[in-house]
């Protein structure tokens, strides 16, 4: 290998080794390790809020379905009125 290329690789390898030594001890390293292990630090109220929002979404879906059925009924009535007239 070219000696100049090796001279450039030494500082790069030194920085990488330093980064790999420091990163696991940082807050970001701990957060990443917790995330990988499945121990996310979700706030306690978040799960209740998600359940509440899911309930609201289900209610909105039911309301939307009912509205669509009413619209279909109205369209059929209008179409039947046009055929008679």
Can you walk through the features of this model?
With 85 residues, the protein is mainly alpha-helical. It folds into two domains: 1-41, no CATH class; 43-85. It is 85% helix and 0% strand. It contains three helices and no strands. The chain has helices at 3-22, 27-37, 44-84.
SSE map:
Blueprint: H1 3-22, H2 27-37, H3 44-84
Can you tell me the overall shape?
Answer: elongated
Please, what is the average pLDDT? Answer: 87
- Binned, the helix content reads over 70%
Specify the number of helices: 3
Helix and strand sequence: HHH
Radius of gyration: 31 Å
Instruction: Report the structural category.
Output: mainly alpha
Which band does the percent of strand residues land in? under 5%
- Total number of β-strand segments? 0
Distance between the termini: 92 Å
Parts with pLDDT < 50 across at least 5 consecutive residues: none
- Major sheet description: none
Number of domains: 2
Brief digest:
By secondary structure, the chain is mainly alpha-helical.
Question: What are the defining features of this structure?
Answer:
mainly alpha, 2 domains, 3 helices
């Amino acid at each position: 290998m070219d000696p100049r290329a090796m001279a450039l690789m030494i500082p790069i390898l030194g920085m990488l080794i330093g980064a790999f030594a420091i990163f696991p001890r940082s807050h970001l390293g701990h957060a990443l390790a917790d995330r990988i292990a499945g121990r996310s630090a979700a706030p306690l109220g978040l799960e209740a809020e998600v359940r509440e929002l899911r309930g609201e979404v289900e209610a909105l879906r039911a309301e939307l379905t009912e509205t669509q059925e009413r619209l279909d009924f109205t369209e059929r009535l209008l179409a039947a009125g046009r055929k008679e007239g």
